[in-house]
Every structure is written in C-alpha cells, then in structure tokens.
Write a structure and sequence with these properties.
Elements (H helix, E strand, L loop, with lengths): L1 H13 L5 H20 L2 H10 L7 H20 L4 H61 L3 H6 L1 H68 L8 H32 L7 H19 L5 H4 L3 H23 L3
Helix pairs in contact: 1-2, 1-5, 2-9, 3-5, 4-5, 4-8, 5-7, 8-11, 9-11
C-alpha cells in the first residue's frame, strides 16, 4: 500500500489538467498517508519485543501483507513507475517481513528456549532436593553414633554440610545461567529492531530525495500509450487487482482470531488506527484530484484495496473496545 501512495503522489504531480490547488491538496494528503504507512508497523514491533510474544498478531494477516507487497512491487516494475515507488515498496516489504519474522520467532524459537531452560531448571532442582535428603540422613546417622565416632566424624559432617550447600545452591546457579541465556535473546532482537529502524530512516530519506529527480526523468522518458506493451499492462493491472484483494482479505483472519480469543491482548491499537488513517488519506489523495471516471478507472483496484479494509479495521477497533487488551 505504501508504494501505491507514492504512485498517487507522482500521478497527481504529473497531471496538468487539474487545478494547482487540487494537485497541492492531493500531494499534502498523500504525504500524510505516506507518513502513516512509514511508521504503522513500529508500534506492533515494539509491543512484541516488550512482551516477548507474538501471539496477538495473526500470522495469516502478516503473510498476506508480504504477498501483497510482492505483487505491488512487481506491478510497479512492469508499469515503469518512478523509482521512488519501487524503493518505498521494497522498504514496506522489509518492514512487513521483519514483523512476520519477529512473530514467528517469539511463537516458536523463543518458546523453545524457554521450555529448554525450564526443563534444565527442573532437573537441577530435583537433583538438589535428592542431595539434600541424602545429606540430612547422613547427618542424623552421625548424630546417633558414639561420642568418640561423632567427635571423629565432626569434620566429615562439616564437609557434608558444605556439599549440601553447594548442591542446594546449584539450582540457583542454574537459574542464573538460564536467565543469562534468555537475556541474550532480547539483545539480539534489539539489534534487529535497531537495524530495522536505521534502515527505514535511510530508505525514507533516500526515497524522498530521489523522488523529484525520478519524476522529472519519468516525464521525459515515459513511454507513450501507443508504444506501451498491452500484455504487460494487463498483467500489471491483474497484479494490482490481486494485491487489492489480498489487502482486503488480510484483516479478516485477525478479526476472526480476536473474536475466537475474545481478546485483543498482544495487539497494538496504533497498528489499526494508523492503517485506517493511511487508507482513508490515500483514497482522498486520489479523489481530490478529479472525479472523472476516465481518471479514476486505473485506480479502481487501489481504491477498493484502500476503502474496503477500512470497514474491517473499524470492526477491529470496535473489538478493542469490547475485549481486554
């Protein structure tokens, strides 16, 4: 969807038939939409990292977003859109893939580490309890022995108590070791998230700086309609339609999961608020330029892909009101 916003901005800027006011308004609204889509994933990524869990996010929804991003990028390449469209589309694919990876990581890999550490800790606790019982039995036997033997074995009893102390403290050491191994995992995830944030900033600035030059080159070098390849245009339009259908349906699994769990725990409300704002402003950026059917016809798949999900997003926001989170 982020790539489509850039496309709408480029088309609005290139249009010479509409008023300058409409173009300026479309560009302004488009940049609001662009800002929403640039930051939309970070609240959810941070929440997953904070909770060390990805249970709240629907994997089907995330996988659908990644597929939709791939279709968008492919369609943009086939239609020879401005380079900034492809760059930002690639950025959004990267962010979606990061959230998908993070969700899978916390659901599978991180849980496996927790289970392994719990088993190791339980084993050490059992060994410590057994050693303590044996030491107590031995101490009782020594106390009941004769005075001479008891005096002679007093040093052995002290040594035994040291062994008991060492054995009993071993679960604590094991627990500390397990906690240390778990502390390493958030450090790794923090590095991944930091890399994602820095990469996002670089891509965003590069795309915004590169966009004006790309638009000018596109105006000079753009193929005329009679020289365009009809087959590639049809395929690109089909990809746009496919991505629109994917985006429309992608929120349904999340709504179903929330309903089945009767909970929105683990979900960031900002993910859906920013998505709703991004979709509505994206549609407005197209509509304020012109309501001419000939102008709107190429944008029908994108408009459907933006406006129809708004209904599902509003329902999910209603679930935040109904269910605990």
């Amino acid at each position: 969807m982020l790539a489509l916003v850039v496309r709408a901005l480029a088309d609005a800027s290139a249009s010479g038939t509409e008023s300058a006011y409409a173009q300026a308004l479309s560009t302004t609204i488009g940049y609001v939409s662009l800002a929403c889509w640039i930051v939309v994933m970070f609240p959810q990524i941070y929440l997953n990292y904070q909770r060390k869990s990805g249970e709240g996010v629907s994997l089907v929804m995330m996988a659908a977003w990644v597929c939709g991003d791939i279709f968008n990028i492919a369609g943009a390449l086939m239609q020879d859109l401005v380079a900034s469209t492809v760059i930002i589309g690639t950025y959004y694919l990267f962010v979606d893939s990061t959230l998908l990876y993070q969700t899978i990581y916390y659901r599978i890999v991180y849980k496996a580490h927790l289970a392994k550490d719990a088993v190791d800790l339980g084993t050490n606790n059992a060994q410590g309890a057994e050693a303590e019982a044996e030491a107590e039995a031995e101490a009782e036997h020594l106390i009941n022995s004769s005075q001479t033997i008891a005096a002679h074995d007093d040093s052995q009893h002290n040594g035994t108590q040291q062994v008991v102390t060492m054995q009993y403290s071993s679960p604590i050491a094991a627990e500390s070791s397990g906690a240390h191994s778990l502390d390493v995992l958030p450090s790794v995830m923090a590095g991944v998230l930091s890399l994602a944030a820095v990469s996002s900033l670089v891509v965003m600035l590069g795309a915004l700086l590169f966009a004006p030059a790309s638009d000018n080159n596109n105006d000079n070098d753009k193929k005329s309609p009679e020289h365009s390849v009809p087959g590639s245009q049809i395929i690109a339009q089909a990809m746009g339609t496919a991505s629109a259908v994917i985006y429309i349906m992608s929120y349904v699994p999340q709504a179903i999961q929330n309903y089945q769990r009767k909970s929105c725990e683990g979900l960031s409300i900002w993910l859906f608020l920013l998505s709703l704002m991004g979709n509505t402003t994206y549609a407005l950026a197209i509509l304020v330029v012109s309501l001419d059917p000939h102008y709107l016809a190429p944008y029908v798949p994108w408009l459907l892909g933006a406006l129809v999900p708004c209904l599902i997003q509003i329902y999910i926001l209603y679930q935040f009101y109904m269910y605990p989170h």
